[in-house]
Amino acid sequence: MSVPVVISSAGAELAGDLVVPGDARAIVVFAHGSGSSRHSLRNRAVAELLQDNGFATLLLDLLTEDEDRRTTELRFDIPLLADRVVTAVEQIGDQMVVRGLPIGLFGASTGAAAALIAAARDSSVRAVVSRGGRPDLAGSALADVRAPTLLIVGELDQQVLELNQQAAQLITAPMHIEVVAGASHLFEEPGTLEHVARLATSWFDEHLIA
């Protein structure tokens, strides 16, 4: 079933879409990247495969429409975005339909940094996946991440790949970088996004359910 939810964070009302398949085994909260939203077709494609494999998903706007319309600066305010991911993790656990389920985070672009900071601050986060993310923007928080972390980067996205490799050296939790052959930053090439979804599902299966 799909349930509209609102996450309240420091006076902001953040809209989210919670989908809970029957006999859900865990929940994955999505942290979208700069300029994106819960309507992201790429993240929804990943979420659908997760749902098919027994994962509840929360796709959440980390900024209100008014905030996003007034200024683009907030899209790169990583501490603010991280605070909102932490709040979402806390509040979604109060939803009856997912209460008690293990929690994972899926971040894209700047949302990956926010997800990693949230994981460093909240020990209830048990696994993290980044798609084309900027984990380097999480800074010193990377050393405090305890959740197993998968960094997925496109082979053709060389600058972001280098930033991921640098960030990986600071992550002390179990982690892996997966380079998707023939993929650019947005994974627009045929079959690449489906591959990302399979990788994410396998990682959450191994580290969130076990």
TrEMBL record:
Tell me which domain of life the UniProt entry assigns to the organism this sequence originates from: Bacteria
Any GO molecular function: hydrolase activity
The residue stretches assigned to a coiled coil in this entry are none
Q: Kindly state which keywords UniProt assigns to this record, in alphabetical order.
A: Hydrolase
**Domain KANL3/Tex30 alpha/beta hydrolase-like residue range list:** 25-190
Which InterPro entries would you find in this protein's record?
A: AB_hydrolase_fold, FrsA_esterase, KANL3/Tex30_Abhydrolase
> Keyword Transmembrane helix, does the record have it?
no
- Entry's Gene3D superfamilies? alpha/beta hydrolase
- SUPFAM superfamilies in alphabetical order: alpha/beta-Hydrolases
Question: Which Pfam family, just one, is annotated for this protein?
Answer: Abhydrolase_11
Q: Which family does it belong to?
A: Belongs to the AB hydrolase superfamily.
Task: Please report the name of this protein according to its UniProt entry.
Answer: Alpha/beta hydrolase
**Which species is this record about?**
Kibdelosporangium aridum
